[in-house]
Structure to design on (263 residues):
């Protein structure tokens, strides 16, 4: 069997393409900035979805998730502009009529296309006052993302990123969701490489300037196992414990990783 990392067709981006991806990523960050003030107890997920949809429309961007089917293509099209995952929902939560409650955490994932180039990021927010264990999960997940980005140095191997994430998460008593990872980004939402959030280190292609991909660790308070709900999209922890996710899009440069999804 050919190793998964030898089957990749990674497209290196030139400076003009990276500049366009930076603009798309900046708009994602700006969408989060206007969304953050609306996240509070009592707000409905569909209202957050509408707020984001209106913002993207005003800025001339196309939402990427709405109508997306992914794999397998037989599953129902995704109904919203954002993914909104509450508490034990790992990812791909539906932005429906549910209302946020004090003490919740909610992961918001936004993907868009601007002038033909994609932007993608995720932030997990506190809703009101959360418990200390929930805050610790958020802190650890953010640090996992930071360490994963720091490991993405030119000349290192792709799985060094996941090893850095896994080592830290497990040292803090948390687990890493293994089957969902980052992905290349360009004119398409999902390109090579697939970016694992676990080790071992030292495997996969060397990181080269011009690579653009997301790093988006999903960290669970309990076990790493998950299940898919009957809606065909929502992924939840099997033990019902909290899950959090933070995501950035980065470009590998001669001088190290550059975060493209910043304001």
């Amino acid at each position: 069997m050919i190793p998964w990392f030898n089957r990749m067709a990674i497209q290196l981006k030139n400076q003009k393409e990276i500049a366009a991806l930076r603009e798309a990523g900046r708009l994602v960050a700006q969408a989060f900035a206007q969304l953050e003030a609306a996240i509070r107890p009592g707000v409905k997920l569909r209202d957050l979805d509408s707020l984001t949809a209106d913002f993207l429309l005003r800025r001339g961007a196309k939402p990427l998730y709405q109508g997306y089917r992914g794999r397998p293509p037989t599953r129902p099209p995704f109904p919203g502009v954002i993914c909104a995952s509450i508490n034990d929902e790992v990812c791909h939560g539906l932005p429906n009529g549910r209302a946020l409650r004090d003490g919740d955490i909610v992961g918001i994932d936004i993907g868009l296309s601007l002038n033909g180039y994609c932007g993608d990021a995720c932030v997990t927010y506190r809703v009101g006052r959360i418990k200390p264990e929930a805050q610790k999960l958020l802190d650890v997940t953010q640090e996992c993302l930071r360490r994963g980005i720091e490991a993405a140095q030119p000349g290192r191997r792709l799985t060094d990123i996941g090893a850095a994430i896994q080592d830290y998460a497990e040292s803090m008593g948390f687990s890493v969701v293994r089957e969902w990872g980052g992905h290349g980004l360009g004119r398409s939402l999902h390109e090579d490489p697939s970016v694992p959030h676990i080790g071992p280190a030292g495997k996969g292609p060397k990181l080269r300037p011009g690579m653009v991909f997301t790093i988006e660790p999903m960290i669970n308070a309990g076990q790493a196992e998950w299940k898919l709900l009957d809606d065909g999209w929502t992924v939840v922890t099997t033990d019902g414990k909290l899950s959090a996710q933070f995501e950035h899009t980065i470009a590998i440069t001669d001088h190290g990783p550059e975060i493209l999804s910043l304001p």
Remarks:
- The chain has one domain: 12-259.
- Residues 172 and 242 are 15 Å apart (CA to CA).
- Residues 12-259 form a domain with the Creatine Amidinohydrolase fold (CATH 3.90.230.10).
